[in-house]
Amino acid sequence: MRSASFIDDVRARWYRFRLDRSVRALPLELVADSGARADKESSAFRRYARELERYIAVLEDIRRRGPSFVGRFQELRLEKLLRRAAASAYWRSVFERSGVNPGDIRRLADLARIPPVGRTGLIDVPRDASATEKLPDNAVYWMRSSGSTTGTPFIWGSYAWDWPLAVWSYHLRELDARGFSLATSAHRDFLFQINYGGGNAVFQMFFIENFRLRPRGDAAEEDARAIVAAIEEVGPSVLLCNPTELASFLHALDALGRQPPMTGCLLVGQPIEEAFQEHAERLLGCPVIPYYSTMETAAIGAGCRHAPGRYHTYAERVIVEILDDAGRQVADGERGNITVTCLDNLFMPLIRYQPGDVGTLRHRVSCPCGNPNPLLEVEGRSVDVIRFADGSAESVRRVFKLLAADPFLTRIRRMQVRQEELGTLRILLEPRDAILGPAVIRELKKRIDVLYEGKIRVTVEEVREIDPGTKKFKAFVPLAPRTR
Ligand SMILES: [Zn+2]
């Protein structure tokens, strides 16, 4: 890459300092108790909202200066990340094994000297070894991933105080670009999510209310009515959910003939079709913003209006690369393994991390939306559906989410869901240490039967090791096309 001018270099350093200062300025008394709801009249809350606005303004400035400036800013953040990573036993051993002195990595191209790592490479690393310092549990935000794309449930940590700021500043930027103002909305409740399992307490500053929505029939309508009533009570709101939940919500809304006042809908999880997005926007009467994200990295990019199915990466906080199976970078626009270096988690660094998705990345973009950041296309997740005998289909995510619910998550090393024929579902579980035992298996089967209301015959089996069958482990083996 082109070397930055002296002025750009000084400016990029100032921006990095400015973001760090925002983090240090956060009122700890507010963020320390992440289970409590923030008192929005308090001076601590006003300070938090002010710092968040400053943080967002700096991020906007960085993006406006264009790709080569963003690249320089990434290098500076990378330098700091690697310095911190060297304090963790795991990353230190990675650097030693690959003969890398983290201080020598100064350019983005040098990153290639660190080998990529997937989730399977990280699940057996003890948490203390991957952390850069020892902290009490309440100072850490633990992210629990159900492993619906990789079959490996996964727990990863970040600092409890700065992670919500880092994550939410990007969501709020998207909303801001669509006419939402934090300055006028910060003081009131506006953020809702549906069927979101755990981990949401950390966002309580942003007024999260979690709603239950049962999947079908009268129960779904009853739940949807409660959600609509709650939204009507607080006024224009933002909804955060995944596409499966949104589809159920839209279905229930349609049946009720209601439209709650909405400002925006943030969609995480599997990619969506353009037609579904338009349908959702019509029914909700607000923009729908799809994200490419994982639990452990948070948002990697946001969907672009002008490039359906593609995401502009959040280059200010992640370095995204596409690598072939040998770990080499592929040419611009060619497909390969999506590889992410997360620049703002200094507690448990993720460097050249592969969440298990395949995609393409185009660096040279001149998008009509004005965002100069690379465009990422993600493949593969959208085919992960279970097919039912009545012709309907549903994302496999719901069953993974259930399988990974506490207390099972920490006991399962890998899992696989197989649909070998229509009308059946076979679930294989590979335990981590001790066997799960028949009582646990029975209990899981019972829960899954409740989930599908008898629409499909489920078997749950405990196995010593799941035979991957193919070279790459697949968490979900869908129904083969010929049997559909
Ligand atoms: Zn765009």
Give an account of the 3D structure.
The chain has 484 residues and is an alpha/beta fold. It has 2 domains: 274 residues, Rossmann fold, CATH 3.40.50; 100 residues, GMP Synthetase, Chain A, domain 3 (2-Layer Sandwich), CATH 3.30.300. 34% of the residues lie in helices and 23% in strands. It is built from 14 helices and 21 strands. The strands form 4 sheets. Strands 1, 4, 5, 6, 7, 8, 9, 10, 11, 12, 13, 14 and 15 form a 13-stranded mixed β-sheet that branches. The chain has a 4-stranded mixed β-sheet with strand order 20-19-18-21, covered by helices on one side. Helix 1 packs antiparallel against helix 3. The N and C termini lie far apart (49 Å). The structure holds zinc ion. The site of zinc ion has 7 residues, from strand 10.
Helix content class: 25-40%
Largest sheet: 13 strands, mixed
Unreliable stretches (pLDDT < 50, length at least 5) are none
Q: What is the fold named in CATH at topology level of the largest domain?
A: Rossmann fold
